[in-house]
Amino acid sequence: xxxYTTDEKLSFDEIAENLGPHRKRLLEVFDGADxxxxxxxxxxxxxxxxxxGSVKHHLETLARWGLIRETGERVHxxxxxxxxxxxxxxxxxxxxxxxxxxxxxxxxxxxxxxxLSARVEDLEAENEELKSFLAKLAxxxxxxxxxxxxxxxx
Length: 154
What we know:
Blueprint: H1 12-18, H2 20-32, E1 39-40, H3 41-48, H4 52-64, E2 68-76, E3 83-89, H5 91-99, H6 109-140, H7 149-153
Antiparallel strand pairs: 1-3, 2-3
Helix pairs in contact: 2-3, 3-4
């Protein structure tokens, strides 16, 4: 079994930015399986549609990122005569799949949510300022008494 150095420096946002369609499809296969289910390279390739020539590279990259790990087992492939490596989703990989996989390919969604949240806060503050101004104006022109403004503008 090959040991991969986990690149713990990569955040989930960085992984999502670098995931690409092939690695995303491989993780989707794990997502569709039982939590502790192991899957061999050949089955991963079949289910994901990732080209045979690049599946090893993508699996090793996912392992380096700490999302999957090789179990050390080998499964005999009947038509190829070789033995396929067996992989399992790590706890970190399970967290990534659960929390981030649906957002991959939708660039900057977390940043967009932060921007929208800040915009809502700004609009709420602006709305309060406008209500205060309108209340003062209504009192000034004699439409309302000062004690009536709370009822009308809150």
